[in-house]
Amino acid sequence: MKRIDITLSLLACALVAALVVAVVPAQADELRLVKIRSGDVAGLAAAVADPANANTLIDLEPGVYPLAAPLRLQPNQFLRGANRYQYSGGTPAPRPGGGYADPASETVLDCTLITGPGCVFIAEGGLIGLSVSGGTPGALVQVGGAGSVSPFDVDLRRVDLRGGQRAFRMQVTEGHGSATIEQSVLRDTSGFFGFGWQLQIPSVAASGASIDATITNSMITGNKFGGFVAGLGSDASFTVTSHANSYVGNGAALVLHPARDATAALGGTAPGVHGNRLTFHTESDAFVRNGTSSDSYWPQLGGIVATTALRTGPNSGPHSNNAMQLTVKDPSFTDNAVADLLVYAAVSLDGNFPQGLPSTEPAGENNLLDLTLDVSAHTGTFIGCASIPTDPTGTNQLLVEGGTVIENCGVIA
Length: 413
Description:
Blueprint: E1 16-17, E2 32-36, H1 41-49, E3 56-60, E4 63-66, E5 71-72, E6 77-80, E7 86-88, E8 91-93, E9 107-110, E10 120-121, E11 124-128, E12 131-134, E13 141-144, E14 152-157, E15 160-163, E16 166-171, E17 176-182, E18 185-187, E19 195-201, E20 210-216, E21 219-221, E22 225-231, E23 237-243, E24 246-248, E25 252-257, E26 259-260, H2 263-266, E27 277-283, E28 286-288, E29 304-311, E30 323-329, E31 332-334, E32 341-348, E33 368-374, E34 382-388, E35 397-400, E36 404-405
Parallel strand pairs: 2-3, 3-6, 4-9, 5-10, 6-11, 9-12, 10-13, 11-14, 12-15, 13-16, 14-17, 15-18, 16-19, 17-20, 18-21, 19-22, 20-23, 21-24, 22-25, 23-27, 24-28, 25-29, 26-29, 27-30, 28-31, 29-32, 30-33, 32-34, 33-35
Antiparallel strand pairs: 1-7, 7-8, 35-36
């Protein structure tokens, strides 16, 4: 097994203290300003709910806002707090006393009392310089889902999302969704899901649904899955860039499933998923001590776990004609369990969850994972194969560097 020591880690950079008041994205420069006094939950709820406050920047003073009901932002509405952070290499770093935001500046939307699918709902707009916390919502920030109308265009900048079952979730059932997450913290999610960020096209999605997302200079830590891409409907497409992020201490840093079902985890039956596409580019990301849940899942977790087509059990049809283009450029891998990178074109499991075993049923046909490794001096342990179980048609393919076919489940040289 090939292992080369890592000598560079983003987390080893010296802390650079920076007291930065978050600025609004460029599209919000001309928005009307509404100010909310510290802790004025009723005033905040009324300002958000007022349709006249579309195209508005709502400025919150530092303090805690214990929400009694979810916030549903108006079109092109932004909430801005006063959070200030310390940074390491442009990414928020933990403070010596714990937490991330300067306590004197922290502006907190407290979702402890919120149940249901989400705490803050956004279709077009965003959050800036805020903390959102809570233990029970399906997602602290929810974009899309049942009854929501696309297109979606969401910005999260300098936010600290902590707790809940998911920090950020985008679900697109038709049309297009776009998300930007920048200099943020997504951490300590829990429960059955435990996603830092999740991009999903559900099984009920109309043909042609799509998502593009950019995640940069963010700390994603203490989650079951740091980042999760799931295509459960057919003819879906994703384009995702992850740049200069720190994925630290997650069950898996990245789990990429552009074509899959959820029958093993959630029950029911599902048809096969066909014609999905994912283009995923990770560059200058740090992957540190991930794979903490590796013993609870099969295939095992690690740093990056990418499977083009995942058939979780016999209650789903096979998944065919799907493709993933995965580029891993200049990563930093440190102490990830099992392997730093695990890649499969197609996997079929026996229906047990979470620790399913390989099935004798085929995963599907003509699934492709095209992997480009540009790791320079920062290499690690890479495992991959074309198909589990063996593809009787021979059409599932794992290509490395655009040309090398991996025909077994050994270590990628």
